[in-house]
Amino acid sequence: MNKYEIMFVVRPDMEEAEIKATAEEMKKVLTDGKVNFVEEKNMGQRELAYEVKKFKTGYYFLYIVEANSNTIDEFDRVVRINEKIIRHLIVKVED
């Protein structure tokens, strides 16, 4: 298993409960793949460096996980089709 940092940004125009539900959906994709969570952070609403899909802010979430590449590929697929997420980034961490 490899270590990955996963960050995604949720649209700011939703209710707080819906934002949390979106983060939980993404977490469920990872837990279904049997990943080991090293760290998870809700970084709150932050200003984006540039406008993305007409949004200037977004809610940031960071997960550091140990997972296999198949689980990460599935997460990447799901997050790309989720319209509630405006940006994401997955980085493999080298030890």
Notes on the protein architecture:
Helix 1 packs antiparallel against helix 2 (69-81). Strand 2 and strand 3 (55-67) form a beta hairpin. This protein is α+β, with helices and mostly antiparallel strands. It is globular and about 35 Å long. The relative contact order is 0.35. The protein is built from 2 helices and 4 strands; from the N terminus they run E-H-E-E-H-E. It has a single domain (2-93), classed as 2-Layer Sandwich (Alpha-Beta Plaits). It has a 4-stranded antiparallel sheet, covered by helices on one side.
**For the largest beta sheet, what order do the strands appear in spatially?**
2-3-1-4
Question: Which percent range fits the helix content?
Answer: 25-40%
Biggest pleated sheet: 4 strands, antiparallel
Q: Would you tell me the structural class of the helices and strands?
A: alpha+beta
Q: Write down the overall mean pLDDT.
A: 94
Strand content: over 45%
Known CATH architecture = 2-Layer Sandwich
Secondary-structure blueprint:
Elements: E1 2-10, H1 16-32, E2 36-52, E3 55-67, H2 69-81, E4 85-93
Antiparallel strand pairs: 1-3, 1-4, 2-3
Helix pairs in contact: 1-2
